[in-house]
Amino acid sequence: MNFSRLIEQKLKEAREAGQFDNLPQKGRLDLSEDDGVQEDERLAMHLLKSNDVLPAWIEEDKALREKLDAARGALHRAYAWRRLRLAQATQASERSRIEREWERARAKFEREVEEINRDIFHFNLRAPSSAVHRLPLRLREEYDRLERAAND
Question: Which of 15, 16, 83, 116 is deepest in the core (most CB within 10 A)?
């Protein structure tokens, strides 16, 4: 069993359920109490926090997550549309047209995943620690996630 994936899945489910929406200090970085941070870094963090600015790598991670959510959302909508339309389709030509549209949506998603993986690679190069690195996306896992969500 891969515990890091299990933890990531549980965190994702909690995030999607909104369990992190009302946390105090949401979206704010506070290192003022962290003794492990060097004084100059603590000062820089204080300046950033005072001006409501996040470090570039955090902004980049946020943009990555938004891009991924948008790509997954479009794929889920296309999949739901396909299932609904196929259930209603009575002619083979109509079913064929629906499948072509689904293939276009999949191809678009796969291009987006390639782009997101490039962004993840560049993010990981700039991130301050390997603890915040992102794993590249795997299409098979994304399609498995889609199937699980559709069957729930």
Answer: 116
Provide the residue type at 126 as one letter: R
- Residue 60 in tokens: 């980049």
- Position 63, amino acid: A
Q: Rounded to an integer, what distance in angstroms lies between the CA atom of residue 67 and that of residue 26?
A: 20
CB 61 within 8 A of CB 123: yes
Torsion (CA) 31, 32, 37, 40 in degrees, nearest 10: 110
Q: Please list, in sequence order, all residues whose beta carbon lies within 8 angstroms of the beta carbon of residue 145, skipping any fewer than 6 positions away.
A: 72
| Tens place of pLDDT per residue across the chain (152 aa) | 576 777 878 878 877 887 777 776 666 555 555 555 567 677 776 777 777 777 888 889 999 999 999 999 999 999 999 999 999 999 999 999 999 999 999 999 999 999 999 999 999 998 888 888 999 999 999 999 999 998 88
- For the record, the structure tokens of 6 come out as 């299990």
Which string of DSSP letters, residue by residue, matches 51-95?
TT---HHHHHHHHHHHHHHHHHHHHHHHHHHHHHHHHH--SHHHH
